[in-house]
Amino acid sequence: MRLLLIDDEVALAEMIRDGLAGEGFTTDLMFNGVDGLWAATESPNGAYDAIVLDIMLPGLNGYEVCRELRRREVWTPILMLTAKDGEYDQADALDLGADDYLTKPFPFVVLVARLRALIRRGAPQRPVVLAAGDLHLDPARRRVARGEDHISVTPREFALLEFLLRRSGDVVTKTAILENVWDAGFEGDLNIVEVYVGYLRKKIDHPYGRTAIQTVRGVGYRLDPHGG
Question: Fewer CB within a 10 Å sphere, N or C end of the chain?
Fold first, then answer.
């Protein structure tokens, strides 16, 4: 398994590389955003199974690298790695196309587990615009619409809707939502998911007489692939 680690903390990056070698990973290191973007798109080493990407980088920051990779339709799974722990930083990373988020300092065993999970899921082709019936979400433009109506949503609502749309038709648990839309280390009330589902329903469903987001009692939620 080949990884790309983009982090300007040289000592930490080398320590992570050495630790990952013991777990069966081959890791290429880049220490700024410009070189990291080049490696992710043009490196002669070939395609990577996953990218570990710091946010605070010289040259191009991690947000810019992630945005550009997704713009170029490079769908390699991305784990954002950063010392920043604000919830909006996490939401922004997910909105831009990152697949997971881990805050420094972190247990090495958790990093390995997250990477293995990302690689198991792989990197399926992602449509430019996600749709369920007349409900559309454009990740690049960060736009949500019902038919011709633009719907204003918060960054957290956008991340939640994108997560549900990418798994439309599947039942997802509250825990899975928390781990992917919030940080896995979130220690607040699990019912925060229910609160934000309610916010979304008031924007994308109720005004249109729809029920796209369905509650599966005792399990979680399901987004109707036909848009409700």
Answer: N
Q: Cα–Cα distances in Å, from 3 out to 20, 27, 50, 110, 111?
A: 9, 5, 5, 16, 12
- The rounded distance, in Å, linking the Cα atoms of 192 and 80 is 23
Name every residue whose Cβ is closer than 8 Å to that of residue 62 and which is 6 or more positions away in sequence: 6, 33, 53, 54, 55, 56, 80, 82, 93
The pTM of the full predicted model, rounded to 2 decimals, is 0.57
Whole-angstrom distance, CA of residue 77 vs CA of residue 3: 10
Q: Which residues contact 187 (CB under 8 A, 6 or more apart)?
A: none
**Cross-strand pairs, 213:** 223
| pLDDT range class, residue 184, cuts 50, 70, 90 | low
Give how far the C-alpha of residue 90 lies from the chain's centroid of Cα atoms, to the nearest Å: 9
Q: What is the DSSP letter of 226?
A: T
76-108 as b/e: b if 16+ CB within 10 A: bbbbbbbebeeeebbbbbbbbbbbbbbbeeeee
Contact 157, 200 (CB under 8 A): yes
Which DSSP letter does residue 201 get? I
Which has the closest alpha carbon to 166: 70, 102, 87?
A: 70
**Domains of the chain: residue spans and CATH:** 2-121 (3.40.50.2300), 130-223 (1.10.10.10)
CA 106 to each of CA 102, 113, 132: distance values in angstroms, whole numbers, following the listed order: 7, 12, 37
For residue range 27-48, list pLDDT tens digits in order: 999 999 999 999 999 866 568 8
- What is the 8-class DSSP label of residue 204? I
